[in-house]
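Posting this for the archive.
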Amino acid sequence: MVSRFPSRSKKEECLEKEEEMNMAISTNNSIELKEERIQLVSFKIGNEEHGIDVLKVREIIRMSNITRVPNTPLYIEGVINLRGKVIPIISLRMRFNLPDAENDSRTRIIVMDIDNELMGFVVDSVAEVIRIAISEIQPPPPIVVVGIDQECISGVINHADRLLVLLDLEKIFSAEERKSFNDMIQ
């Protein structure tokens, strides 16, 4: 009588191959799970799209009345009162030496914690929060965006057929500039 089932050795062989495939799948899944992901807030300044770490963003607010402060650099638009706390407002357009533009209904202030101090950064619009794998971040080429200080560019990301310049806004100001911000709000 011929058995419908393969001989024990063939059966064992099939089980062994199945186990190897499951281990390979498990290994691939664990590699994917181990790949660290970060979330970025993407925003536009002019025609360029940028991203910043969402963990540094305290909140995103609509443009409000900004009180000008005399004798400050052009990129400092002034200060605002945000729930009893006075914070400096910086125009990223002006800081990056881009042409000035009128604020409109899409203009936002991204309030961030920079070295334990709140600061607001004016951007043309905020697009979305995106999740990316850290492996997607490529080092910036020598010249990424004209007018942006190279120190504050931490990488470039090709995401959904568009390039984002990843900024580290903690590196946008010198220690001397930070001190002047503290003097301004006190």
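The longest strand covers residues 37-45. Helices lie at 8-34, 92-95, 175-185.
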